[in-house]
Amino acid sequence: MSSVYLQTFGCQMNVADSNGLAYQAWSLGCTFTEEPGEADILIVNTCAIREKAETRVYGRLGQLKNIKRPGSKLLVAGCLAEKDRQVMQKKAPHVDALLGPREYRRFKQLLAQWGVPTDAPPPQTEMRAASAEDDPGHDGAAQFAHLRALVSITRGCEKFCTYCIVPYTRGPLESLDPEEIEAHIRREIRCGAKEITLLGQNVNSYIHGPTGLNFAGLLRRLSAIDGLERLTFLTSHPKDFDGDVVDALAQLPNVQPRLHLPVQCASNRVLAAMARLYTIEEYLEKIAYFRERLPRWALTTDLIVGFPGESEADFAQTLELVERGTFEAAFIFAYSPRSGTPAATMAAQVPPQEKIRRLQVLNTAQMQRTNDFHQSFIGETVPVIVSGPSKKDASRMAGKTGHNVTVVWPRDARSEHRPCVDIAVEQAYNWGLAGRVA
Ligand code: SF4
Question: Is the pTM higher than 0.90?
Answer without folding.
Answer: no
